[in-house]
């Protein structure tokens, strides 16, 4: 995992986005947040703060609002009540430049991951580097190592429609972390992979967290949560009855 070690010791220009400071005391903050859709309230009175370098899991039954809460965490949705602040700024007050900053500082692994079907896997994963003008600075070294780490080296030239569900998830995670964002939000990132690969992907997220990155993972997998808590200090947030609860140590 040399690319992570290089980033941990001396971040290269192609990986750095915005350096966290002590002023970023909360990267994500919800204050009495509610969200309604189609006349029904999905989330109610949510108050939670994610500090820089923290590791959280988000659990709850299907349909409880996990994906909705994740979307609120990066400004894809706006709350119908209460306040959501990202890096100290209320999402309602953000302009286009602020939103662009959020996109650089937050890496998102969607449950329904989308790719450009006419581009091979390697180019899809490296697209954030290309868009930011940083791909030429890396010589592709970090991209190739990341492809190897998520087990996609042999699929680098494949087109997205040729990938299995598990391969798409691995590609989505690689794309989300290629720019070494300050925050990684992952919605069921190991749902379609076997246990061995899920542990490999978990190690990637744990190493990013040890570098000071904030990680939030939505999952049903209690085994994954237990394996993580054996490696880093992770808190478990559970959505129940439209509200957030801090899960007990039995997890």
TrEMBL record:
<keyword id="KW-0547">Nucleotide-binding</keyword>
<dbReference type="InterPro" id="IPR003593">
    <property type="entry name" value="AAA+_ATPase"/>
</dbReference>
<dbReference type="InterPro" id="IPR027417">
    <property type="entry name" value="P-loop_NTPase"/>
</dbReference>
<protein>
    <submittedName>
        <fullName>Cell division ATP-binding protein FtsE</fullName>
    </submittedName>
</protein>
<feature type="domain" description="ABC transporter">
    <location>
        <begin position="28"/>
        <end position="247"/>
    </location>
</feature>
<dbReference type="Pfam" id="PF00005">
    <property type="entry name" value="ABC_tran"/>
</dbReference>
<keyword id="KW-0067">ATP-binding</keyword>
<dbReference type="GO" id="GO:0051301">
    <property type="term" value="P:cell division"/>
</dbReference>
<dbReference type="GO" id="GO:0005886">
    <property type="term" value="C:plasma membrane"/>
</dbReference>
<dbReference type="InterPro" id="IPR003439">
    <property type="entry name" value="ABC_transporter-like_ATP-bd"/>
</dbReference>
<keyword id="KW-0131">Cell cycle</keyword>
<dbReference type="InterPro" id="IPR017871">
    <property type="entry name" value="ABC_transporter-like_CS"/>
</dbReference>
<dbReference type="InterPro" id="IPR015854">
    <property type="entry name" value="ABC_transpr_LolD-like"/>
</dbReference>
<dbReference type="GO" id="GO:0022857">
    <property type="term" value="F:transmembrane transporter activity"/>
</dbReference>
<keyword id="KW-0132">Cell division</keyword>
<dbReference type="GO" id="GO:0005524">
    <property type="term" value="F:ATP binding"/>
</dbReference>
<dbReference type="GO" id="GO:0016887">
    <property type="term" value="F:ATP hydrolysis activity"/>
</dbReference>
